[in-house]
Amino acid sequence: MRRKITSIETTLVIVVLTMAAIISLARSFRRPLCFPSASTHNRLLKSRICPLWSSSFYFCLPPPPPRNIRLRHIDRPTPLAAVDPFRASYSSATAPSPMSTVSDDNNPLLKEFEFPPFDVIDASHVLPGMRALLKKLDSDLMELEKNVEPSWPKLVEPFEKMMDRLSVVWGAINHLKSVKDTPELRSAIEEIQPEKVEFDLKLGQSKPIYNAYKAIRESPDWATLSDARKRIVESAIREAVLSGVSLEDSKREEFNKIEQELTKLSRKFEENVLDATKKFEKLITDKKEIEGLPATSLGLAAQTASSKGHENATAENGPWMITLDAPSFMSVMQHAKNRALREEIYRAYVTRASSGELDNTQVIDQILKLRLEKAKLLGYNNYAEVSMATKMATVSKAEELLEKLRSASWNAAVQDMEDLRQFAKSQGASEADDLIHWDTAFWSERLRESKFEINEEELRPYFSLPKVMDGLFSLVKMLFGIDVEPADGLAPVWNADVRFYCIKDSSGKPISYFYFDPYSRPAEKRGGAWMDEVLARSRVLSDDRTSVRLPVAHMVCNQMPPVGEKPSLMTFREVETVFHEFGHALQHMLTKQDEGLVAGIRGIEWDAVELPSQFMENWCYHRDTLMSIAKHYETGESLPEEIYQKLLAAKTFRAGTLSLRQLKFATVDLELHSKYVPGGSESIYDVDRRVSEKTQVIPPLPEDRFLCSFSHIFAGGYAAGYYSYKWAEVLSADAFSAFEDAGLDDDKAVRETGHRFRETILALGGGKDPLEVFVEFRGREPSPEPLLRHNGLLQTA
């Protein structure tokens, strides 16, 4: 019997067909792919978007750490000073600040190291260390410009060497700001950043280097270069243009001032979000007020209270402290029976960083104004066009995709809300006919529990962090033939909870390393989850030039820490997050690309960079994988089979609503960067409300200021790029389908397919067009069929 096709199913059909058309367009009009140019020493970092499963998607979106993606995407803040971008201005070093008293001999930032000395770097090292380093690099740059030749040994190799030290040092400093923030570190970064950005601009606008790259492309030897080297040259030329190298002197000076100010503003935005999140604390002494919170949440709330001076706090008797940090916030929204408490916490969350000295409203206005001015200087109509210049899609194609999905998702989302109202009414809820934002997460969780008999909190004991990591490491051993071994003590760490690991190939030879920082620390650590590089694989930077320098990554999450004698117990969604971020890390760590400028995650188009991360999430629903990690932390009992089947069934729960919520973010992003006119008749909040009319069944509160904490686009790398998650979903679904075709129960076939995935998707880095890489793995171009099948639509399509 054929069942009726729902609107959300129709949506997915339209989406995948649209994606196929965009892929075809990208193939016909293929651009050279962008890699993070060495001129900006970019730290390629990936943040984890709010899980699509969450009924609270709208307000649980975690902010990513700032992302330095190419000079034209500098989202790092620095004050707009009277800076001449063509002068190596180090005169400020002659008047040291109070923190500039560390000598070069004692500065860990200036010493040679195998791994960054995270344990000893502090704010006092930043100014003297960075100034000394910038002075040395400025001298190296002048020497390179003076003697540059259009050849690989005389241009690209010395360029990579020169920039690596700055990339590593600046990356270590900013990493510590993300995971161990202090006022002193903020101040030091703020003071040095104009000088650092000044050097970035000088490098990015170097005409001798720009002309040398063009000469390589125009030389008779061009045809003999590898794909990777061609992409390096093409990207360097394009990046130089987008960095203002072709602008006249007066316009270039204006461009440089804009870059300085944008860097300052993005840092200010993220700091305001962090400070506003930290600022809110609600102490509760009456347990009735937090009725419904699970034991793990009560333990966390008591532990937080204890850390704030209430030393005798216990999970049973309190007091309990609620914060806006994700584990605390989400627990209240999903489980607290106290509607007034949910309302208070929700209102606090959606108005973060929107008032007083932490108000981001003017920061956003200035960011959008300057991004538009920058786009105009570069000859584009708007900033979205600048962003899309290095992506597979175009502004119009992205908008078309979003609108088709939105229009087809609306009715399904309306039905989701009606289902929620009817369920709340059946439970005798007085608010059933007037459900509002602080009700939807609570009643969605109750409906999910009722419909699928799954309670996220009750599943936590089956997902202890040590067991999850053991299972993850066993999976990648089977798929990719690698061993992940603890290497604690080999590298300095920034917190006692941080673990360090070594990855070895089948012969036992180390091929990469990574740090893992799993727990939430709201007083000093940014929210969200991300992967970032510490060191990139590189032949040029190896000690002997006959081998390679091994890549090093770090992976950061914000899950609930251990409480008392209990290990960190994870929700299933936190398990997915760990798998997701490890997918990014694998692409960095398992690369076989020896050209450091396009190794690992460097150089992969934004539209495709989520492929390995989303691919790894699929394995969370693979029965053998899940059963290997889902063991009760006390009894060792495996997750019951019926619970596993219910997890599968619940995978697409409230899909219409969740689709609309993600579309809200993507559409607002594009609207603000393509159509919004700073200083015009519409405010940023007018745009947000206008978009919400078509993307939210329940209109936002009048005081909703979600934009003030939308770090993805104002302090991260997703400006005019949030749409890209759907693009990568087609690729990742099709990639996983290769394993399904081989037979997920056939270990030999899975290993063979995993080897092919490793040798293509994970190994080739940004040295080859990602569409070509996909075809090399899959044997054909991407198909929408796997996405249809994974969503249960194949029989109805």
UniProtKB/TrEMBL annotation:
UniProt-recorded name of the protein: Uncharacterized protein
Organism annotation: Arctium lappa (Greater burdock)
